[in-house]
Specification:
Elements lengths: L1 H12 L3 H36 L3 E5 L5 E2 L1 H12 L3 E18 L2 E12 L4 H4 L9 H5 L32 H22 L12 H7 L89 E6 H4 E4 L2 E4 L6 E7 L7 E12 L4 H4 L2 E5 H8 L10 E2 L1 E6 L5 H11 L5 E5 H4 L1 H39 L1 H9 L4 H32 L1 H12 L6 H4 L10 H18 L1 H8 L3 H5 L3
Parallel strand pairs: 4-10, 5-9
Antiparallel strand pairs: 1-12, 1-13, 2-11, 3-4, 3-8, 3-12, 5-10, 6-7, 8-9
Length: 580
């Protein structure tokens, strides 16, 4: 009983111990906050990576791919059919996308991905990252007639709006087509020597009336004949498939009928105009567009990563293009050597995974279109080539075990089979390493508090030598004296870690409000969404992590009192009272 009484008395009267309590408190609170924020970022990143990528990616080591995706999927089911929930073929190829922004062309490198709209959503969370509610239910590469999100559906009610998306879709496309017609009439009247607007149904006034409502200048597409794709070599360890024949050459002055809802002409129309009369960076004037009404028809749909179509300023997304705009995409054909092909697509939606690496690099098109344009379809058999198959496993299945079985069944020199964690191993390892280093550095704060407790206890032993001698002369045992100091260290640890636990949990709960307050006080945002592409700081409290932080703080406080306690326990009462 006397042990607890003395520990409590020292805790209340020895104010020098307050420094150790504050050190433990700050160390515990800081570690809880840092681990919660890092866990929140890691959780968000892993969820988005897993949502982008399927559980297992079965892909060709060659960009040309392998024939007969159905045969490959049958073989995969034979090996691991009980563990597989869904599969879908894809074609991935590096490409360049050209956006018309004002009077300039913006060229960006992309990963062009051909997907099956019907099955892609079964193997990943792809649909959740689209900006139209109907596309989130079932993707369609047809342009929607409005209804796009004007607020980030993945964010909260306080997230900044996106007013430009209110008119996105066919309404915006028709308005663009009307402006193009007005500008074309103005250009043609100027060429004929007439005053602008004379003899036309619309002039500069009409153009000025429409133009302010548009975020960008019109992009008048140029139709190009498809390149003849070279034949593909037969893949090893797969069924023999004849190489696709080359597409017939398109006569000069013709254009492919690739527009949805409209027919392209084979002869150059009499009223054709230069593809881009307003920009010196556009195509040459001898390239002409087919008879294609953009107000009624669209090209093949494309889903762009939102990072390709926007830039962020003052915490808001500013759009360069919108759903309804046309873009050109340049990519290599299949075969060796590959050729360069360029084609036109109409933006039908944006993809926003919140991972800037993907939002700024991915573009999705129908897999059948990409296979046809690259020459990846055998005309004699109708078999198509793909270069990847995405596999989703049933819940609770071991990805690594399924991966290993597939690796054993397929020739490794021709196929690469990895889980989504394997594909992102370097990034995930870097995040975990960063978290581990931060924990080590922050734990040193608590260690400093432990050394403070050690020094304070040695001072107490020297100062209270007479009191220790009296206690032992009255019958206190050595273990009892030792228990006083160990109990005192435990109390210091309990108070410090307890207060730190409460402070850390409260800080995590109100972390976004605290960040906003600090931003207003300093005039600079603490958490800049322009950098992280998150509007709020993600934080997750892990009870196991909190438990080991508090337990570690208590252990350090108790361990720091062991040496002073041993010294006090070894004092002989006669020696302690000799000079008193």
């Amino acid at each position: 009983m006397y042990v607890l009484m003395l520990c409590w008395r020292y805790l209340r009267t020895r104010y020098i111990a307050l420094a150790s309590i504050i050190s433990v408190m700050l160390g515990v609170a800081t570690m809880i906050v840092v681990n919660s924020v890092m866990l929140g970022f890691t959780h968000e990143m892993e969820n988005r990576l897993h949502g982008i990528l399927s559980d297992i990616i079965f892909q060709s080591r060659s960009l040309e791919g392998f024939p007969d995706a159905d045969w490959h999927m049958d073989q995969i089911r034979r090996v691991a059919g009980d563990d597989i929930e869904a599969m879908t073929p894809t074609v991935v190829v590096p490409a360049m996308v050209n956006l018309q922004v004002g009077e300039q062309w913006v060229t960006r490198p992309v990963q062009l991905i051909g997907i099956d709209a019907a099955t892609q959503g079964r193997v990943s969370d792809f649909g959740q990252y689209l900006q139209h509610p109907e596309n989130r239910r079932q993707l369609s590469f047809q342009l929607r007639d409005g209804g796009y999100d004007v607020r980030d559906h993945q964010g909260g009610p306080d997230d900044p709006p996106r007013p430009e998306m209110a008119d996105a879709g066919w309404k915006y496309r028709r308005r663009m087509a009307q402006l193009r017609k007005i500008m074309r009439d103005i250009e043609s009247s100027s060429v004929e020597g007439q005053a602008p607007g004379r003899g036309t149904t619309a002039g500069p006034a009409a153009a000025a009336e429409i133009a302010p409502t548009l975020p960008t200048a019109p992009a008048v597409p140029t139709a190009l004949a498809p390149e003849n794709g070279p034949t593909l070599p037969t893949a090893f360890a797969v069924p023999t498939a004849p190489a696709p024949a080359t597409a017939p050459a398109v006569p000069t002055g013709t254009a492919p009928a690739q527009a949805t809802g409209g027919a392209a002409t084979t002869d150059r129309p009499a009223d054709a105009v230069p593809a881009n009369p307003f920009s010196r960076f556009g195509p040459r004037e001898e390239e002409y567009v087919p008879a294609f009404d953009p107000a009624q028809s669209q090209y093949t749909g494309i889903v762009l990563g939102i990072g390709l179509a926007t830039y962020r300023k003052d915490g808001r997304d500013r759009f360069l293009v919108l759903p309804g705009d046309d873009v050109t995409v340049t990519f290599p054909t299949a075969g060796s050597p590959p050729r360069i092909h360029r084609d036109f697509f109409t933006i039908v939606d944006f993809y926003e995974s919140k991972m800037s690496e993907y939002d700024s690099n991915f573009a999705f098109v129908p897999i059948e279109t990409l296979q046809r344009l690259r020459g990846m379809i055998d005309p004699s058999t109708g078999r198509s080539y793909v270069n990847a198959i995405s596999i989703k496993l049933k819940p609770g299945r071991d990805m690594n075990a399924v991966r290993d079985r597939l690796r054993a069944a397929f020739a490794p020199q021709y196929y690469s089979i990895d889980t989504w964690r394997d594909n992102q191993g370097a990034l995930l390892a870097a995040v975990h390493m960063e978290t581990a280093i931060l924990n080590v550095l922050l734990f040193l704060i608590i260690c400093v508090a432990g050394f403070g407790i050690l020094a304070i206890f040695f001072m107490i032993v020297v100062e209270k030598t007479r009191d220790i001698g009296i206690l032992k002369s009255l019958g206190a045992s050595s273990s009892g004296v030792m228990g006083i100091f160990l109990g005192y260290g435990l109390l210091l640890g309990l108070v410090g870690s307890g207060v730190g636990l409460v402070m850390g949990l409260l800080f995590v709960h109100y972390i976004n409000e605290i960040a906003d307050l600090l931003g207003r006080l300093t005039g600079r945002p603490v958490f800049d969404p322009d950098i992280y592409y998150f509007y709020k700081i993600p934080a997750i409290i892990d009870p196991f992590t909190v438990a080991w932080i508090v337990g570690g703080a208590l252990a350090i406080a108790v361990l720091a009192g062991i040496l002073p306690a041993l010294r006090a326990a070894r004092l002989h009462p006669v020696e302690a009272l000799r000079y008193e």
